[in-house]
Structure formats: structure tokens, C-alpha cells
Write a structure and sequence with these properties.
The structure holds two protein chains of two kinds. By secondary structure, chain A is α/β, with parallel strands linked by helices. Chain A has four domains: about 5-210 and about 390-445, Ribonuclease Z/Hydroxyacylglutathione hydrolase-like (Metallo-beta-lactamase, Chain A); about 215-385, Rossmann fold (3-Layer(aba) Sandwich); about 450-470 and about 480-505, no CATH class; about 510-594, 2-Layer Sandwich (Alpha-D-Glucose-1,6-Bisphosphate, Chain A, domain 4). Chain A is about 30% helix and about 25% strand. Chain A contains 16 helices and 31 strands. In chain A, strands 6-5-4-3-2-1-23 form a seven-stranded mixed beta sheet. In chain A, helix 3 (about 95-115) runs antiparallel to helix 4 (about 125-130). The longest helix of chain A is centred in the N-terminal third of the chain and has 21 residues, at about 95-115. By secondary structure, chain B is mainly β. Chain B has one helix at about 315-325; strands at about 5, 15-20, 35-40, 45-50, 70-80, 85-90, 95-100, 105-110, 120-125, 135-140, 145-150, 155-160, 165-170, 180-185, 190-195, 200, 210, 225-230, 240-245, 245-250, 260-265, 275-280, 285-290, 295-300, 310, 315, 335-340, 345-350, 355-360. In chain B, a hairpin with an 8-residue loop joins strand 20 and strand 21 (about 260-265). Classes of the chains: A alpha/beta, B mainly beta. Chains A and B meet through strand 12, helix 5, helix 6, strand 20 and helix 11 of A and strand 1 and strand 5 of B. Strand 12 of chain A pairs antiparallel with strand 5 (about 70-80) of chain B.
């Protein structure tokens, strides 16, 4: 039975290092190539030894596909392509291709320059890696080679995120990457057609969560910001330049407009212009509302949000500042934080996950005295808040996606098996499909049942139709006899005679002969007659003839009676049948033996 | 002023229904305590969920925003039929349910760390009921896990869960359909009938129960619901009875026949899945089941003479979020429960599948804040 093999890479049950290997129809594909932000050693990269023990990966992979620009999905790409070695195509959407290198470079700078790491990819490696990228458009089928084709679908989540449909022959797989089934202020919701893949691969990190309503979450956030502003405090929101930042900007801009607030909102320079530039460039990747209003005004050109200058941090009075980077681990957001930490009227709101070791992580864990460079300590008196605005699918989202795509099997990665049994049960009950949950490093082989299209000769078709019976029905298989001729890549089903003619072969006949001994005092012809009447009563519906030449014919089977020379009572029955009547022949011989 | 979390409605699995609170921490749930069991009561398959409440609830006073706002499904299971009554057996990881169609009960094990599936472990046979009503359930852990159950006053029995043995039967003359069954002490229980009668009995003695007739105002078609308080600060247990016309009567458990105080509540609408509940540590009662709102009343203002009593607080969250969704049927509260340790917190579920965990604050202290609710664009959900 043909099968598709899926192996999530990485060590342990850890989340955050997305990299999945798929073997389908003889092709090997790597889905995402992420970095784990929590480790400082080789554990942050996926374990590529699953592909090959040593040497370059080019010969073992047909292509690499990257779903979106988050580092836990593309962070290990330059390492994989330039340091381990891969020269084949890397597919990703246009926005991902534009934004990926910026984030990779940013990350590289912090890791190497600030932390002083040596075994890391260089700027040149990032550039070389990106040269191998082939960009994808939504809903456009791309032929990787003459057997493998891929197609990207909108995934929501962040700008340019895609779900990918991979097809080889009549087998297919859909990989979701990270996706979101509810639209937000600047992105639409994920969408896919009823493509009925053999396997739908989805992350299950949030599968056991039931998400709180976005409205309540936003209202709480705005309330907190408003309260701080009202009492004259300053609010710092550390963000990554691209991603949730745009969502929060639109949220605040709308709120400021409604409430007629005057306090300034700033967005730190540097990546701001580039970010806005990309959103304007890829306007088709945002949601419909933004596209509609784009004609009147650009949603990303804000009235109340201005560019930040370092000196503003010392200005008196309330303000809100969006500053990069997001985990307060370096750069401008950290500088501002240091200035504002001492005042309890101020507030910092962390809008996402903070990796261990970063200041963001420390203050979220309640640390109120921080050690800075030069042995200086910082007293953290401002209010520390956390609010996750990340857009991921929860259990309900996963069920919705399955309903849309109608896969034949489901595969969940990045969850703990013990904590997923209920979801597995839900999926199996509602959709009657198998649900697999491989651990990292474990290979799952999913059996597929591909249908092979075959041409059939008209003669054979007519013959089959003449046999009568129910009309062709995909749900009820019907077997038939024929000869399959494979010429190059075409398959043709013809009748045996036609095949013989085409191949210029002679048909051989095969006849079986069987002798049955019995005792009968009657004469040969009487014995034969007795057999004839017996068979006639037993085998109604079959053509049984008693021929004048002393034989009985059952269909095409010949029965003769002869007696032994020594003993007139010892009769020998001779049965002879051709290969086609094998079943009937053996049946007769067993009947007559009794 | 309230903070609320709501779970977006799950239209395919029917309605979320009865809620049973297990506030005590359990060794098998590491980390925070506080989980809640929720089940659906649509006519066919339903889900039972053990949800861990968002960590936000456990944040200190100053912190407005907290790490987790989401509910976590800690364990889940499937029920073949509707779940009309659900009770957690204290001190165990067991829950007992009834489907509202018969008197038999289903026993479930919520499970521990090794798996997240709630499994059916057994059943308890109930006595036949002519009316085809479901049974009410009360559970106790001492001396061993046992359940008190029955659909009518004449068919209430106490069954030990491990052996299935019937330990006690309530002897009454009439078969009055029950709307509530509750332990008020170790072995003392109160059976509230829908006609307003109450029976008080002790499972340790075969003595006849004390019967209290319905309040004088009760008429032919009036239905009553009952709740007994378990406030350790109060000298004795109080019982509230609420009628389908909004008449609420509070009595002392020792003097059931007398009304200590009463009030006419302003409830409109057809009652369905009515819950009336004492706050764990206050003189407040909460009412739901007449509409899409949960109301809280202060009984200290009530007198012996019947007067109208306005609610102290109304949680409109379910009704409001429903209005904001297009094409939504008017939502009705299906169940609500008080948080056993946090006196300001309640949980409510509604017919659209939403679950809210919310705090209430007495209006006087917060008049200013309740007016400045920010409003945001509603066109994107």
C-alpha cells in the first residue's frame, strides 16, 4: 500500500522549532526550518541528521517550503542552507521573502554582536540563502518538477503567512504553518477549499485552549492604557516591528479617535518605515476592510501615531511608545525602559512571549531589581503587564479548518500525546478520520488509497456493459478482467484478445483433466445418464447437455465415462476443463467424487 | 463594573449547560487549583469538559492584565446523551451526571495526569419515575463517596458509589417532583419540590422527614426552586425558595414553616433552567433562568412583609454579546455558580454556548468607573 511519511524534527517535546519532513510519492520535502529561541547551543536548530547523517542535504530534499517570517519557522534557514548545505529551491510567499531576511539579520546582529557568539550564520549567508528563494503567489499552482506541485493558501496570522498544499500524483498533503481562523483588524482569516488532502498537518500548541473573546481582551488592554495616561504616566509597549504591532497600532488609533484623546503615541523609528512600506506594498495580503479604506486613506498611515525620537523619552507628561525589540533584550525599547522603570505611574505592557534570559521574561516573573551592565542595578517600580495578542488557532479553529479542507487523515504536531487524546477523540468522532500525533523525531506512515486513472478500450467497455449489473458507482468497487498495458506514462486496459494482437502473441490454451473412480454396476452409457440427470438437478441454471457422442457437457466441461478393462463395475470418469472454467471444474470433480 | 471572559459560541455542539464547581485543589492537577466542569445538554452527543480557569483570576489585586486569559481544557469526555444535572463528588476525581430522561445516573472519572480523557466508569440505578423526569443529585464524600438522587420525593435514595449499595431511602407519602436536592450538613439533606414543599431528613435515621408545606402564596401552576446556604459565618442555615412568578421566601432551616423575610423580585420572562443560589459568604442570592441576565439580590433589605426588591447587580454580558452577533436568538442563562473562595466571582453559562467568569462590585463603590466603558468598533469579531 502506498504511504506518506511525516517526521517532525527536533529534540524532545519542545514547541518552537518548527521543521517537518514529508515523504510523498518518492519526493522529500522540508516544511519550515525554525529556530528555538530558548536555547543558546545546537539545540536551537532542528536535527537534520534525520535527512542524512553527513553531508549536504541537496540530494535528499526536493524542496523546502517556509510558511511565514516568524523566527521559530524560518530562523534556522540560513544555517541549514549555507552551513549544513542545501542548494535546491526554497519556496515562500512574496511578503515572507521580503521580510524574512530583515528579521534574520536583526536576530543575527543581536546574537553575534551583543552576545558574542561565533558559530552562527553571517550576513552574507543570509543573502546567499535568499538567492535560492522562489516566491509563491496565493492560489497559484507551482510545478517544482514534473511530478511535484505546490500551492499556497492564505493563513492569516501575520503578513504573508501561508498554508501549503503539496501534491504528487494523486496523493496530497496540506501543511498549515501557523494560522488563525478569526479575522483581526489588519488580516483576514485563513481559508482553504475542499481539497481533500490525504493528510492535513497542523500545529496543536493551543489545541487544549479555549480562547477568551478578543473583544474582552482588547477592552481590558485599552482600559489599562487609558488609566495610565489619565494619571500622567507613560506606557511602553515593546514590539517586534512586524506582526502584532500593526494590530495594536490600529487598535489604539481607533480608540484615540473615538475618545478624542490628546496624549501622543509614538512608534520607534528604524523598522517602522520599512514595516509600513511592506504593508502598503503587500496590501492584497491584508484584510478586506483595509483594502477598501485604502482608497480613501492608508490604514497604516496613522493620524495619532508619530515617529519617535530618542529625546522624546524625557518629555514630561503622558505618552504611549511602541519600541523595538519585543523582549526588552536590547536596543531602543530597553533604553526607554531604563528611563521609565523608576516611576510607578508608568507602565510596560509585554504583548507576547518572552524568551528566558531576556529582561522581558525576568520582569514578567516578578523580578523587581535588575542587574544591568557595569554592575548597576535597576529598580523596577513601574507596572508590569502582559497581554497576549497572538493569533493562533485553538481547538475550535482546528475543527473549522478540518471542516473546510476535508482531509482523509489528520496529523497534529507540537503537542503532548497525553494531553491530546480528547481532541483526537473529537476529531475521530466528528469526522471519522484517523488522527496522528507523532512526537519530535518519530515517523508516522499514513497509508493512502490513491486512485490510478486508466484508459479503457471501447471493446472492453462494451463487453462489460453487456454483462449487465449495476452501473459504475465509485462507492461499490466492481472487479473485471482485462490486460493492463503500460506504455511510457500511459495506462491502458484492453481485452486479452486485443492485447495478444498488439503484442503479436499467440494465445495458449490450458486444459485440466481429472479422473474420478467410482463403482457402478451399470453400463457406461447408463452411468453417464445417471450423472447427467444428477448434475441437471444439482446445477440448475447451467447448460448441461448429453451429447450423442457419449459425453456430458457442463458449459464447456467435458465428462466421459469409461470402464476398466479388468472390472466392469469400476468406472473411470474423465473430466476435462479449460483454465477459464477452473472453478466450475473443481466443483464438479468434488461433487462427483461423492 | 465587571471583568468578563467569554468563550466564543460553539454552534455545533449545542448548548453548554450545568456547571459544577470544584474549588478545592486536587493533587492530580498540579499548579493552580480551581477547575470547573461544564457539559452540554443538546439532545444527542455532548461533551463534558473540565476547564482550568484562566490564571487571570488568581492574579493579585494590582495586576489588571495577566499571563493567561484563556480557559484550558484539562480533561474532556463524550456523553451519549444530554447532561441535565452534573455534580462533583467532593474529595474525589469523580463526577455524576443524569440525562434528564430517566432516573439512572452516570459516573465519570475526570482522570489524572496520564490522560486528558474523562471516562465513564459506571452507573447508578435510580428508582422508576412515572413522570420521566430526570433525577436531581447531591454528592457527599463522608464516610465514603456516595450520591443522593431521585426524581420525586418518594424515590430519593442514597447510593454508595463503590458498592452500588443503597444505604437509605426517603419515605414520604406523596410523589412530589423534585427541583433540588442538597446536603445541608454531614448527613442532613433538603429536598425541594417543584410545588414548593420541602423535606428535611437525616440519612442516618429511619425517622420520618420533616415536611414543610409550600408558601401560602403558591398557586396551582406555580413552580418553586430552592437553595440552602452553607455560610459558616451564619449561625444557622438559611433556605430560599423562589417561585416562577418571582416570589422569594427566606426561612431558617430550623423553622422552615416560617418566612424570615420575603420579597417580590422583578423577573420577567418564561422560567427555564432556573438557578437560585446563595452567595458563599454574604447575605446575597443570585437568580438566573428567566432571561439572558444573572441578577444578584441583597436579602438584608428584605422584610417579613412582601415588597418589591430591585436587584443589587445584573450581569448582562451574555445578552449584550449576543446582540452584537448577527442573527442570534435571544440568549438565556442556562446555569450559574458562585466561586467557592472568591466572594466577588461568579461563573455563568448561556444557551449560545458562552461561559463567563465575572466579578461583581456593589454599585455604590464604583459609580464613576461604570460609566466610562470604552466602546470599540464592532464590525470585526
Amino acid at each position: 500500500m502506498p504511504e506518506i511519511k511525516v517526521t517532525p524534527l527536533g529534540a524532545g517535546q519542545d514547541v518552537g522549532r518548527s521543521c517537518i519532513l514529508v515523504s510523498i510519492g518518492g519526493k522529500n520535502i522540508m516544511l519550515d526550518c525554525g529556530m528555538h529561541m530558548g536555547y543558546n547551543d545546537d539545540r536551537r536548530f532542528p536535527d537534520f541528521s534525520y535527512v542524512t547523517q553527513n553531508g549536504r542535504l541537496t540530494d535528499f530534499l526536493d524542496c523546502v517550503i517556509i510558511s511565514h517570517f516568524h523566527l521559530d519557522h524560518c530562523g534556522a534557514l540560513p544555517y541549514m542552507s549555507e552551513m549544513v548545505g542545501y542548494d535546491g529551491p526554497i519556496y515562500m510567499t512574496h511578503p515572507t521573502k521580503a521580510i524574512c531576511p530583515i528579521l534574520l539579520e536583526d536576530f543575527r546582529k543581536i546574537t553575534v554582536d551583543k552576545k558574542g557568539e561565533t558559530n552562527f550564520f553571517t550576513s552574507q549567508m543570509i543573502k546567499d540563502c535568499m538567492k535560492k528563494v522562489v516566491p509563491l503567489n496565493l492560489h497559484q499552482t507551482v510545478q517544482v518538477d514534473d511530478e511535484l506541485e505546490i500551492k499556497a493558501y492564505y493563513a492569516g496570522h501575520v503578513l504573508g503567512a501561508a498554508m501549503v498544499h503539496i501534491k504528487v500524483g494523486s496523493e496530497s498533503v496540506v501543511y498549515t504553518g501557523d494560522y488563525n481562523m478569526t479575522p483581526d483588524r489588519h488580516l483576514g482569516a485563513a481559508w482553504i477549499d475542499k481539497c481533500r488532502p490525504d493528510i492535513l498537518i497542523s500545529e496543536s500548541t493551543y489545541a487544549t485552549t479555549i480562547r477568551d473573546s478578543k473583544r474582552c481582551r482588547e477592552r481590558d488592554f485599552l482600559k489599562k492604557v487609558h488609566e495610565s495616561i489619565e494619571r500622567g504616566g507613560k506606557v511602553l509597549i515593546p514590539v517586534f516591528a512586524l506582526g502584532r504591532a500593526q494590530e495594536l497600532c490600529i487598535l489604539l488609533e481607533t480608540f484615540w479617535e473615538r475618545m478624542n484623546l490628546k496624549a501622543p503615541i509614538y512608534f520607534s523609528t528604524g523598522l517602522t518605515e520599512k514595516a509600513n512600506h511592506y504593508y502598503k506594498l503587500f496590501i492584497t495580503w491584508t484584510n478586506q476592510k483595509i483594502r477598501k479604506t485604502f482608497v480613501q486613506r492608508n490604514m497604516f498611515e496613522f493620524k495619532h501615531i508619530k515617529a519617535f525620537d530618542r529625546s522624546y523619552a524625557d518629555n514630561p507628561g503622558p505618552m504611549v511608545v511602541f519600541a523595538t525589540p519585543g523582549m526588552l533584550h536590547a536596543g531602543q525599547s530597553l533604553q526607554i525602559f531604563k528611563k521609565w522603570a523608576g516611576n510607578e505611574k508608568n507602565m510596560v505592557i509585554m504583548p507576547g512571549y518572552c524568551v528566558q534570559g531576556t529582561i522581558g521574561h525576568k520582569i514578567l516573573n516578578g523580578q523587581r531589581k535588575l542587574e544591568m551592565e557595569g554592575r548597576a542595578t535597576l529598580d523596577v517600580k513601574l507596572q508590569v503587564e502582559y497581554m497576549s495578542f497572538s493569533a493562533h488557532a485553538d481547538a475550535k479553529g482546528i475543527m473549522q479548518l478540518i471542516r473546510m479542507a476535508e482531509p482523509r487523515n489528520m496529523l497534529l504536531v507540537h503537542g503532548e500525546a497525553a494531553k491530546m487524546e480528547f481532541l483526537k477523540g473529537k476529531i475521530e468522532q466528528e469526522f471519522s478520520i484517523d488522527c496522528y500525533m507523532p512526537a519530535n523525531g518519530e515517523t508516522v506512515a499514513v497509508k493512502t488509497n490513491p486512485s490510478v486513472p486508466v484508459d479503457m478500450s471501447v471493446n472492453l467497455l462494451k463487453r462489460e456493459m453487456a454483462l449487465g449489473g449495476p452501473l459504475p458507482d465509485p462507492k461499490r468497487p466492481r472487479s473485471m478482467h482485462g490486460t493492463l498495458i503500460m506504455k511510457e506514462s500511459s495506462l491502458k486496459l484492453v481485452s486479452s484478445e486485443q492485447a495478444l494482437k498488439e503484442l503479436a502473441l499467440n494465445e495458449h490454451q490450458l486444459r485440466f483433466t481429472c479422473r474420478v473412480a467410482l463403482q457402478d454396476p451399470h453400463s457406461d452409457s447408463e452411468t453417464l445418464h445417471r450423472i447427467y440427470t444428477h448434475l441437471k438437478s444439482l446445477l440448475k441454471g447451467y447448460t448441461i447437455q448429453h451429447l450423442p457422442d457419449g459425453t456430458v457437457m457442463v458449459e464447456s466441461i467435458v465428462i466421459k465415462v469409461s470402464s476398466s478393462a479388468e472390472d466392469a463395475n469400476a468406472k473411470i470418469l474423465l473430466l476435462s476443463w479449460s483454465y477459464q472454467d477452473e472453478d466450475l471444474g473443481s466443483f464438479l470433480s468434488s461433487v462427483l467424487k461423492k | 463594573m465587571f471583568i468578563s471572559w467569554s468563550i466564543p459560541p460553539r454552534s455545533s455542539s449545542g448548548h453548554l449547560g450545568k456547571v459544577s464547581e470544584n474549588g478545592e485543589s486536587s493533587d492530580s492537577i498540579t499548579g493552580s487549583d480551581g477547575t470547573v466542569c461544564v457539559a452540554g445538554f443538546s439532545s444527542s452527543k455532548n461533551e463534558l469538559l473540565e476547564l482550568r480557569l484562566p490564571l487571570k483570576l488568581f492574579a493579585e489585586e494590582n495586576k489588571g492584565l495577566c499571563a493567561e486569559r484563556d480557559f484550558k481544557v484539562v480533561h474532556g469526555g463524550f456523553s451519549e446523551g444530554p447532561v441535565s444535572c452534573l455534580r462533583h463528588v467532593p474529595g474525589t476525581r469523580l463526577i455524576v451526571t443524569n440525562d434528564g430522561r430517566g432516573t439512572d445516573l452516570q459516573v465519570w472519572d475526570l482522570g489524572g495526569e496520564e490522560s486528558d480523557v474523562i471516562r465513564r466508569t459506571g452507573s447508578v440505578k435510580g428508582m422508576e419515575s412515572a413522570s420521566k423526569r430526570g433525577s436531581r443529585i447531591a454528592a457527599s464524600a463522608s464516610p465514603s463517596p456516595q450520591v443522593l438522587h431521585g426524581a420525586e420525593s418518594s424515590s430519593v435514595q442514597l447510593t454508595q458509589l463503590t458498592s452500588g449499595q443503597s444505604l437509605y431511602k426517603l419515605e414520604t407519602d406523596s410523589a412530589d417532583p423534585l427541583n433540588s436536592l442538597q446536603f445541608t450538613g454531614d448527613a442532613v439533606f433538603l429536598a425541594g419540590c417543584s410545588n414548593g414543599k420541602m423535606y428535611l431528613a437525616d440519612t442516618r435515621t429511619p425517622a420520618a422527614p420533616l415536611m414543610s408545606p409550600p408558601p401560602p402564596s403558591s398557586g396551582q401552576s406555580v413552580v418553586w426552586w430552592t437553595d440552602a446556604s452553607a455560610d459558616p459565618q451564619q449561625p444557622s442555615c438559611r433556605v430560599v425558595r423562589l417561585s416562577s412568578s418571582g416570589h422569594a421566601v427566606v426561612s431558617d432551616l430550623r423553622k422552615l414553616g416560617e418566612a424570615a423575610c420575603q420579597a417580590q423580585l422583578d423577573v420577567h420572562g418564561r422560567p427555564d433552567n432556573v438557578t437560585v443560589s446563595w452567595a458563599p459568604r454574604r447575605n446575597c442570592i443570585s437568580v438566573s433562568g428567566f432571561s439572558g441576565v444573572v441578577e444578584i439580590y441583597d436579602t438584608r433589605d428584605w422584610r417579613t412583609a412582601l415588597r418589591r426588591a430591585p436587584p443589587l447587580f445584573q450581569h448582562r454580558g451574555h445578552a449584550v454579546s449576543c446582540q452584537q452577533t448577527d442573527g442570534c436568538d435571544p440568549v438565556r442563562i442556562t446555569a450559574h455558580v458562585w466561586h467557592p473562595e472568591r466572594p466577588q466571582t461568579l461563573l455563568s453559562t448561556a444557551s449560545d454556548g458562552s461561559v463567563h467568569v465575572w466579578d461583581w462590585v456593589e454599585p455604590d463603590a464604583n459609580r464613576l468607573e461604570s460609566q466610562s466603558e470604552p466602546s470599540i468598533e464592532q464590525d470585526q469579531k
